Structures are given as structure tokens and as C-alpha cells.
Amino acid sequence: METNVIYCGDSLDIMKKFPDGSIDLIYLDPPFFSQREYENIWIKDEITKLKFSDKDWENLRSSINPTILKEYEEIEKRWRGGHKGIYVYIAYMRERLEQCWRILKESGAVYLHCDWHAGHYLKMMMDEVFGYDNFRNEIAVKRVRKNVKERKEVKKMNVGYEIILFYAKSDKHFIKQPTKKDIKPERWHDFEASGYRTGMDYELFGRKPKDGNHWRWTKDRAMQSIKEKILRPHPTSGKPQYLIPASTETILDSLWGDLVSSSFKHGYPTEKNEAILERVIKMSSKKEEIVLDPFCGCGTAIAVAKKLNRKWIGIDIARTACDVMQKRVGGKVIGGESDDELRKMNPHEFARLIIMEKLNGTINPKKSGDMGIDGWIEFMTIPVQVKRWGHKVGRPEVDKFRTAVQRERKTKGMIIAFDFTKDCWEEVARIKKEDKIDIQLRSVKEIFNN
Ligand SMILES: C[S@@+](CC[C@H](N)C(=O)[O-])C[C@H]1O[C@@H](n2cnc3c(N)ncnc32)[C@H](O)[C@@H]1O
Asked: Which pairs count as long-range contacts for 276-280, CB under 8 Å and 24+ apart, including other chains?
């Protein structure tokens, strides 16, 4: 199995090609059902359109496996309102998590990052796919708090955390307990604890614990501890006290309030904090094991896996994400360049891929009203238009583009598309002869083959 690679495409299609029991650890941070559209990303100090949608899940209904969807239909009928697409989202995620389960080794584990929008529905679905007994922890990670102006009348509290659902594939998964450096000097602590316990209310230094309380240790252990000088009466009050040794490390529990979830290091929306991934990867994998992130974004999980000497595989459906990842971690990008895959890309991403990545040009930063110019190549001297259409580009498009080139006071331009009509080639020849404007027509295939 090829590792240290980035796959560009839908994680469902890609994971289906992986063999059973081949992956050690999966971390996934999919869209959270947040009802948001993510649009911009900063690359090379330029803003670029990315567009991944976490909205309108209902529209995806027809693309979901009907057998899975059918299971949710009865529940959906009882759904009171709000965002109807939630079970479409759950069914979408379930298809992918079933693949995660299949490809994980028996000793493997999965960490699913989510939040309040769908976390509880995902938990139920994960219990079905991974088994209730394989649930290990619900980890809470601190959210970056937006600095909203203090208002007295609001409808709900600020959301303080995101959730990571941690499941093992089986009992063969063991973790290395995460610890935190926590240097505390040795200290004396009250030996009395609340709650009654039979036999633990013996007399000690002439006292008994208060009614309903107990001493922390059995009588035998207490006697031994007195000899070892780790149990004593308080020098003034006389209350029994025991010595807590100096500690340098404390074992962490599932409340990761010391780490914030997001990072803004690579300009990717929804980018996660490397420290979280470091904790997850160290906890649930060993050196040389394979870490997979099927919704990889700008590649935080795989960058950390690489740093920690794990093998890694990243998958993202957005070409822009795959390019950012490649710059961050190296490795090769597989897929995302067949005609079918390219045609599925959103127009902005497609233009960015061709102009910036393939032709080393500059993309037009205007979101709309770009007047037919998607970018420039050759040190801004040649305006470029990129068409992602399934049908051929014809004469009217060439005429419009000629006007745009003239408006820019340029004498050269380039149109890139999958195919051109015969009329189009004739019009280009006429424009060159009569208007002295040289418009080159290039096929997408030509750009990718070069
Ligand atoms: C929340 S972001 C992940 C961010 C990532 N953890 C990071 O630190 O950068 C979710 C990503 O999932 C990708 N995505 C959405 N649907 C996908 C699918 N079906 N297959 C693969 N990737 C997908 C989006 O393009 C987006 O980059």
C-alpha cells in the first residue's frame, strides 16, 4: 500500500480502494453540519477561492446510498423541524465511517472531530458502526472564543468546546496515556475524605473522622505510613495529614482545556491546532505505523504524523487543499486530474489550479465582476480566461474575451477550455489578422500534459 501520499478526491471512493485492516490510526475532521460555506484561503499571500460547503445537505440526498438512507427515514419523519438535512449528513458520514471501520487494523482506532451541530447524532451512528463497547472517550477541546461584544440579552451561551469521539476497532487497541508536565513540590494533604466507608473510621492520633467521613487508607497502610513518615498529625491542629510526593507529570483526562482547537498558521479555514494532532497521534500510534486523514484540509494531521515518524495518507476532495498539503508535507498528489474530476471542481478552484499551479501565473482576486479575465501569466502581460464547461467554447466567447483583452490594453490573451468549436478557431484567426490581437486557444489536456 502506497503511503506518504495525498489523494485528491472523495474519501469514500478512495478508501474503498484500500485493503481491509491496513491502517493503524484514522483522524477525521469532516464538515461539522455547520450550515456555513467556506470560501477563502490565503496562499502565497494571495487570497484564493476554495469553496467547500457545509450547507444544504438536503441537496445531496439523491447521491447517498439508498440502503443507508432508508434506515434513517423513519426517524426523519419524527424530526420536528430545523435543518432537515441532518440525516442526509449522518448517512453521508456513515458511508465513509463504515469504510474507516473496514480499513482499520484490529489494533487500530479512529478519532472523529465534530461539535454540537451533529456530534450527538454522530455518536449514535458510530455506536452502530464501531460498537458501543468500542467507544473510548468523548474528548472536549477548547474552542477559540470569538470576541463578541458583551450583550445582556442573548439567546444562548458562547460555545466553549468541540468534541472528538474516540473509538477503538477492538480491545486490541491500547493507548499511551497522555501526560502533562506539571511540576509540583511535595505537599501535605488532609487525610480525611468525604463519604462513609466501613472499617475506615478507626482511631488515628486520638481522633476519628467526622460522621459520614472516612480516612483515606486502611488501618494497616496507615500504620506503615506513620513509620515511613508520610502520615502525621498536623503540627498545630493535630488533624491527620499524608504526604503527596513531588510530581513532574500528571495524567490527562478527556477534558483538553489546555489546547484550543483551531489554528490560523496556514490560512486554511477550519485548520486545526497541531498540538491536538500531536496528542492524538502519540497516544494511539507508534513510529512507522500508518496514519490516515480522509478529510485532510491543509494537512495538519499528516504534517504532524510525518514529524513524529509515522507513515501518512491524506485525502481531500478540494484540489486547493491538496496543493496546500503538498507544499506543507511534500509527497505526491494522486488523482484529481481526470476530465471527470476536473469538471466536478468549482470554477474558481479550477481556474486557480490552472493559472497558479500549472502556469505559475497570478489569479484575479476579484470575487465577481472579473470582466472575463480569470488571471494573468507571463508577468501579468497575458490575460487568461479558463472555461470549465462540458460543451465546446465557441465564437461568442472569443469575441467577448477579445473585448476584455482590449479593455486591458493588451495584445495577447489565452483561453483554456476542454474543447473549442471550429468557428472558434476561425474567429481567433480573424481577430489576429484584423484586430492585431493574438488569442491563443489551449486545451486543458495540453496544459496537464505539459
Ligand atoms: C474541516 S476541514 C479539515 C481541516 C483540517 N483538519 C486541517 O487542519 O486543515 C474539512 C475538509 O474536508 C474536505 N472534504 C469535504 N468533503 C469531503 C469528501 N467527501 N472527501 C474528502 N474530503 C472532503 C473539505 O474540502 C475540507 O478541506
From this structure: 276/141, 276/164, 277/27, 277/301, 277/304, 277/305, 278/304, 278/307, 278/308, 279/178, 280/25, 280/27, 280/111, 280/164
Question: What fold is seen in the domain 5-179+252-335?
Answer: Rossmann fold (3.40.50)
Percent of the chain with pLDDT over 70: 94
State which fold the 341-449 domain adopts.
Answer: 3.40.1340
Cα–Cα distance between 333 and 325 in angstroms, integer?
Answer: 9
Report helix angle 119-130 to 86-103, nearest 10.
40
Stretch(es) of the chain classified as CATH 3.40.50.150 = 5-179+252-335
| Range(s) within the chain of domains with CATH label 3.40.1340.10 | 341-449
**Taking CB atoms and a 6 Å cutoff, what residues make up the pocket around ligand 1?**
10-11, 29-31, 52, 268, 270-272, 294-295, 297-298, 300, 315-318, 321
Q: Cell digits for 82? A: 430545523
The string of pLDDT tens digits covering residues 88-100 is 999 999 999 999 9
Rg of the chain over all Cα atoms, to the nearest angstrom: 30
Q: How many Cβ atoms are within 10 Å of 223's Cβ, its own excluded? A: 13
Residue 113 CA to ligand 1 center (angstroms) comes to 11
Query: Whose CA is closest to atom 5 on ligand 1?
Result: 297
Separation CA 92–CA 56 (nearest Å): 13
pLDDT, tens only, 143-202: 977 666 667 788 888 899 999 999 999 999 999 999 988 788 899 999 999 999 999 999
Q: How far is the CA of 296 from the centre of ligand 1 (A)?
A: 5
What's the rounded mean pLDDT across residues 303-331?
93
Give the Å distance between the CA of 336 and the centre of ligand 1. Answer: 15
- Give 82's DSSP letter: S
| DSSP conformation class of 393 | B
- pLDDT single digits (tens) 424-447: 999 999 999 999 999 999 999 888
Distance from the CA of 294 to the center of ligand 1, in angstroms? 7
| Nine cell digits for residue 87 | 440525516
pLDDT of residue 264: 80
